[in-house]
């Protein structure tokens, strides 16, 4: 058996698989609420189509590297002490770890066998997908002529929203609502625009303390895979105090309070 194959596991059959790659997609909270489809363009390494991954110009061909016998690695023996040695594997400096040497390099990839390119992927943003949800695109990682491409794993993250925030349970939402002092004292009804453009009612009767949280049932995020079921919305009520009072207003407050 070839000693290189024995040392580096090159004697078995089957195709070696490349490593997986990671990517992140940032989406709007509206996308997660309504569900949508996004197309993304990503850079990736591709096998050179000019030389079909040989690294050689057309008609020139390639030869097996005589230094590493086509394995792409060589063994360097280091002496650690009297009678003590250590074998270290390193990429072959003559073929740059390729195992083969092109007689004349491909002008498109300069003999590297691969070039930088782009890939367009379509991803379904399902209603209510959890924060950090991962979508796997099989065999869409970097290409190499000697490896089966690994997978591209895309993590979906939500951008901060100016009005709504998602609770850690993924179902409930929070928002703040500013009302007038009069509304805080006497009660109010407010129509609020939701993430899908529809409106819902937030109401309170009597005195509403500053910071009170009102629960609006069924106005949270849709449950993933069960979009007809929704969480709740929690509305924190705030109000602004006047910067000054007239003398008449001051007297009226003193009379009633």
UniProtKB/TrEMBL annotation:
Start and end residues of each CR-type domain: 35-118
ZnF (CR-type) ranges: 35-118
One of the record's GO molecular function terms? unfolded protein binding
Protein's UniProt keywords contain Manganese: no
The transmembrane segments are: none
Q: Does the keyword Transcription regulation apply?
A: no
Q: Which UniProt keywords apply?
A: Metal-binding, Repeat, Zinc, Zinc-finger
Q: Which residues form a coiled coil?
A: none
The alphabetized list of GO BP terms reads: protein folding
In Swiss-Prot or TrEMBL terms, this protein is called: Chaperone DNAJ protein
Q: Which organism is it from?
A: Trypanosoma cruzi Dm28c
């Amino acid at each position: 058996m070839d000693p290189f194959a024995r040392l580096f596991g090159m004697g078995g059959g089957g195709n070696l698989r490349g490593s997986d790659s990671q990517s992140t997609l940032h989406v709007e909270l509206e996308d997660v609420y309504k569900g949508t489809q996004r197309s993304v363009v990503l850079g990736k390494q591709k096998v050179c189509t000019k030389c079909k991954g040989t690294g050689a110009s057309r008609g020139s061909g390639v030869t097996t590297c005589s230094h590493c016998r086509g394995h792409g690695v060589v063994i360097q023996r280091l002496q650690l002490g009297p009678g003590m040695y250590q074998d270290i594997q390193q990429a072959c400096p003559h073929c740059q770890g390729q195992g083969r040497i092109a007689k004349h390099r491909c002008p498109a990839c300069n003999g590297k066998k691969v070039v930088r390119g782009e890939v367009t992927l379509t991803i379904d943003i399902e209603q209510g997908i959890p924060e950090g949800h991962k979508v796997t695109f099989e065999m869409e990682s970097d290409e190499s002529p000697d490896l089966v491409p690994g997978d591209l794993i895309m993590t979906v993250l939500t951008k901060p929203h100016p009005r709504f925030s998602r609770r850690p349970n993924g179902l409930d939402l929070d928002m703040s609502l500013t009302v007038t002092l009069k509304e805080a004292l006497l009660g109010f009804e407010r129509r609020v625009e939701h993430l899908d453009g529809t409106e819902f009612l937030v109401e309170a009767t009597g005195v509403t303390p500053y910071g009170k949280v009102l629960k609006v049932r069924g106005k949270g995020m849709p449950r993933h895979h069960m979009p007809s079921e929704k969480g709740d919305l929690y509305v924190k009520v705030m109000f602004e105090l006047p910067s000054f009072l007239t003398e008449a207003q001051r007297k009226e407050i003193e009379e009633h309070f």
